[in-house]
């Protein structure tokens, strides 16, 4: 039978995919937006759409039978537990030397992330995307992304007295006493809503520990920004629980796209074919890389160039905790949304978010997620034996990140007379060096693609997500992913349609 035909098909509904779908539809082009995760629009048996971090259930993890929480231990005890296998929201995808956390569902990573919405310092941009015109980015596309995402800043006066940011004020005081600049970090959380949470006049979300498995109220994920606009165009067909398994040139022009429809246990319940004139890969750095590497190796897209799969980095992520003195409590009520960081990027190669430990009890712990200038880059390759895609990252490649993070925390510990916590990632383990939240690269701009994301070898195929960025953004990445997508889609709509 003749497969359906669409002018444009977008694979994945995170930042890149949402920008592409919205701008194409606004330009009058019909789009099919394919997302392998769920729509996340229906409450569970507890009346809430998303599960809390303190009580993970089947909604929490993508097709796992046991949770794999980023902080695996509490007071030295392992905290993971069995759960039913389900198309849940957070994927802890395990490669040989690293676990890559990613969001699954309509809205991609925006469903699970901390919402920290940081535009890199202009002086660092040349190292992030060397072939992109910085004037255009800082005059047009970063502002467009910030507006579209609803980025805002905590009110500094409220911050100074809010109980839920005691942990961040301790972080600020200690950073400043050691001579490091503390900077407020913008976020897409609704700050007015958070003030009402603190005042106990609305249901709590950030102040109830919601984050990794979704926020039920205050966070402006893509479900509250780009996705409603996408629906309002009337031109976008959204297909949740559909996974793209193949893309190959179609006989009559365009591309034949194979889709697998999943049930909530992850089983394939139907396979479908669509022919698309143009296909946008927005499955995230890992998802896009895995598809492209496999399609090249298996002969579906043999003319992709040899850069596909290369240039992958972890944004230098590394975590650690510090034990404070008894007179420096960090608070039993902690907002799950971080709002400040310690900037030692130029001197020490590290930008450390002062992160919460929303356990509900006083822990006297300060917790940090550092983004570092780690130079190591991995590569995805096809493995014929497993018919899967491997990543050659090694855990030891995090050592530069640890050294850079120590440029901040060794100094603070020495100034404060404090020590590292050793009970958060195992038994006597200081560094959370086993994971990243910020996968970047694998279809690098100007290498696997031209300077606007057009994939080499195949007119009408594009990468438009975190895979374009070569491994590091110096800050949290989603504003840069969004801004780059806004830049690229504008050019593509103007010249390719
Ligand atoms: P993204 O990963 O968002 O979307 C890809 C989508 O494609 C997913 O929904 C996926 O299910 C889908 N997909 C994959 N393969 C598919 C296939 N074959 N077929 C169909 N669909 C497919 N960043 C930041 O700037 N500030 C922050 O505070 C944080 N915090 C944070 C916390 C945690 C826990 C995580 C996991 C991540 C963050 N991040 C973050 C990172 C940020 O969320 C991430 O960089 C972006 O979501 C990446 O956007 P993309 O558009 O590249 O892909």
TrEMBL record:
Native organism taxonomy: Bacteria, Bacillati, Actinomycetota, Actinomycetes, Pseudonocardiales
Cofactor(s) of this protein: FAD
Domain Glucose-methanol-choline oxidoreductase C-terminal per the UniProt entry, residue ranges: 436-485
Entry keyword set: Cholesterol metabolism, FAD, Flavoprotein, Isomerase, Lipid metabolism, Oxidoreductase, Steroid metabolism, Sterol metabolism
Superkingdom of the source species: Bacteria
Similarity comment: family membership: Belongs to the GMC oxidoreductase family.
Pathway info: Steroid metabolism; cholesterol degradation
GO BP: any one term: cholesterol metabolic process
Gene Ontology molecular function terms on file: cholesterol oxidase activity; steroid Delta-isomerase activity
Name this protein carries in UniProt: Cholesterol oxidase
E.C. no: 1.1.3.6, 5.3.3.1
Entry-linked Gene3D superfamilies: Cholesterol Oxidase, domain 2, FAD/NAD(P)-binding domain
Pfam families: GMC_oxred_C (PF05199), GMC_oxred_C_1st (PF22500)
PANTHER family: CHOLESTEROL OXIDASE, FAD-DEPENDENT OXIDOREDUCTASE 2 FAD BINDING DOMAIN-CONTAINING PROTEIN
